[in-house]
Write a structure and sequence with these properties.
Oligomer: single chain
Structural class: alpha/beta
Radius of gyration: 24 Å
Largest sheet: 6 strands, parallel
Shape: globular
Number of strands: 20
Distance between the termini: 83 Å
Length: about 575
Amino acid sequence: MTKQLAGHLLVDCLLAQGVTHAFGVPGESYLAVLDGLHARRGQIQFITCRQEGGAAFMAEAHGKLTGRPGVCMVTRGPGATNASIGVHTAFQDSTPMLLLVGDVASDCRDREAFQEVDYCSFFGPSTKGFAKRVERIDDADRIPEYVARAFATAMNGRPGPVVLVLPEDMLTQMTDARPLLRVEAVQAWSDPGSLRMLREMLLKSERPFVIAGGSGWTPQSAQALQRFAENWKLPVGNAFRFQDTFDNHHPLYAGDVGIGLNPKLAARVKASDLIIAIGPRLGEMTTGNYTLLEAPKPKQKLVHIHSSAEELNRVYQADLAIQATMNAAARSLELLTAPVSVPWEAWTASANEDFLANLQPQELPGDIDMPAIIGLLQKHLPTDAVLTNGAGNFASWVHRFFKHHGLVKGHKTQLAPTVGAMGYGVPAGIAAAITTGRVAFTIAGDGDFLMNGQELATAVQHGAKSIIVLLNNCMYGTIRMHQEREYPQRSSGSHLNNPDFAALARAYGYAGVRITRTAEFEAELLAALARKEGTLIEVTLDPEVITTRGTLSSITQKALARSL
């Protein structure tokens, strides 16, 4: 059997797992892998990024879109530590991901060699926030075993990131090993007894409420969820930044249970007598800092369905905990026989009425009407467009006012970090354009954009087109809002002196424009959709417009009044 470089075998193993793209920054510690990518360049595309954090975000976004691990390749030390933000995002967002780290040669290990890091300590499960598993491959013949296990670990149970460390000298060994077969995620099915108990709990309920979200959803499972909700006439809310799990246009939709929550929806969740959480891990943002559902034992009856046994009853003690993957869970739920009528039909109808009423905006100052701009996005973006954002108050405009059709129509349409990582939206949009070929739209803030704006160069190099609306208010808006609430009129560190964003975008090869009035936006959006290259539309936003519901000065005045 013909022998080959271990670095080439690694690429063959990725191909066997169905990998089509790898995102990364090249490094001398994994030259043999780069050579393998060159040899197979017609089968797998290496996306050369400008910073490892951007590369890791792209890989994480790819994992969200495909349901299989997005692959990121980085060099040792600084490369791996830069990529850690994407690993942390994949962990908290439960996204399958594989980080490949080129490492120091074996004969240099444990001497604090150039850029040496103990990756098991840095990324290991003991950190409770980075990788599900970290392994070093010291034997080239075992590469297929390690890669297959990495894919299985990343996809099974609660999905998440896996790190494989690749010593430089191991990658140059010759081996006759061959890839193992493609690994598929294991489906865990609900036990019949738990389903019967769930049905009994529903029949005794008067105010049930479904919270759907988390990872592992497909169009088929989203459609099954919709049929379950329709059969039982249940109101459905989507968990924080999983707003494409249930169709926002559906009459059973109640809104997103996340940051900037509709006050009426918050009250509804608290007033419910039965919460059925399907998929989300019920983190801090979805539970309103653990107040909508009190930890560890909620006042509401709680049914928690999750793919990981370790996640169930970890934070919340559920009245009924069911370990099941989303495809299996939703298909089981749609088969539950519903009664002819249910006593909560008015409750469900009013939940949707509250959602629709929340789409009516408050009057805010300035020449930019953000709800109107989101309305134009709703009008002109294709229904399968992918919307991405990083972290900041700017994201609340799309969270509140944009309505996703989402997975039930066949496509994932939202990429947003539940971990709250700034700088995610720009690389995620580029990854969406590369991965899907669909329209990729990003909303960013000025501070958020400057954390990974360099990846526009990556987009141009690889022919990826994204449309970016950048809201510029010359500050870290979320932080300034919190400062005014806690320490009014004492802003510190939150002001920004910014570049000419439109000119910067043009320097990278994007079209760049600036608007100062709402009336200018529609023409620029239509032009952006029509042109071949990507576009950045800078929107000059009044600093007073700090949230979708109020002004900065109103927050200041409330804080000052409290201190009197």
